[in-house]
Amino acid sequence: MLIDETTVTRAEETAFALRALYRSYGYIPYRMGKFEEYDLYSRNKDFLVSDRVITFTDTNGRLLALKPDVTLSIAKNYRDGQSGTEKLYYDENVYRPAKGAGSFREIRQAGLECIGALDAAAAGEVLILAARSLAAVSSDYVLDLAHLGILSAVLEQISSSPSLQEELLHAAGEKNLHGIRAMLLENGIPEEKGALLTRLLSLYGRPEEMLPEIGRIAEACGAGIEYSFFRRALSVFSGGEFAGKIRVDFSVTGDRNYYNGLIFKGFIAGLPAAVLSGGQYDHLMRRLGKKASAAGFAVYLDSIERLDDAPSPLDSDVLLLYGEDADPGELIRAVESLRQEGLTVRTGRTAAPGIRAGRVGVFEKGGITWQ
What we know:
Blueprint: H1 10-24, E1 28-29, E2 35-37, H2 38-42, E3 55-57, E4 63-66, H3 71-77, E5 85-97, E6 104-116, H4 120-137, E7 141-147, H5 148-158, H6 162-173, H7 177-186, H8 195-202, E8 204-205, H9 207-220, H10 224-234, E9 246-249, E10 262-268, E11 276-280, H11 282-287, E12 293-300, E13 316-322, H12 328-340, E14 345-348, E15 357-364, E16 367-370
Parallel strand pairs: 1-5, 7-9, 13-14, 13-15
Antiparallel strand pairs: 2-4, 3-4, 5-6, 6-12, 7-10, 8-9, 10-11, 11-12, 15-16
Helix pairs in contact: 1-4, 4-10, 6-7, 9-10
């Protein structure tokens, strides 16, 4: 049967690359069924992208849900008390409402979870894999990251009111400095008490440039331990490989009922929303009765289909033409020699219409003559 390679979508190509990437770091695949007991999702609706879930009753009378999330399932099934760290990756379809529509969509996600003894080295590995996941989609990417523990410490210095802290957190997520000042005024809080928050939100740039000021802010609000963890985890990006790709941005926030430490989002040029989202979710583990720490992320494979999928400029590096009397054995050895150099090679008696190649050669008894 002939396979039309044009039917392989960008999402599928990316999924192949991500699975290989995660395996190369020792992560093992996680497979889940399509259905989960609805109670798991109903108790953790705030953790989901949407609180709308497809439900049905099975033959035993149990209320089941068509899975809207993978992380909840992994966290629920983690066996507390395991030694070491469990490292899992997945490539699954989830079912969520389509934005701006009344219907549900089947959405493909790939991602990973690291659960157990989450030290700075393990967290740094998750960050590295998030950056490499973005690079598998496009070379034009940015990974924005923050630490929710440091941000929470700043908010707690401003007010002891949980509701006001949440309002300020929401404004921080929008970098709404005017709104923050208005909230402080409305609640009779001197503007100088919000200075650390506005200073923190004004920071945006490379970790090595931002960390000294973040350290001073963290020290001022008693978050030295959180800062030390943040700094050590970010040390994985030292060197030139990720230059210009990693940004500290404390407008990256999350629900503090679930997230507690590192939090991050990944963006690709040409797409309006994040294609990768993740963080440290120890609080979710506690809500599920687990003692372990955890961090992970998901890549939204459906969103990358919106990228301009321009065809590759070349069909092969080399187009090797041969005559009727060419020896098949010698021809294939010539092809293998070129492939050993890392080149892709297409052979043919003539150049098919529209075929694009970096070089054209003619295979003859004496070797290859390049045109």
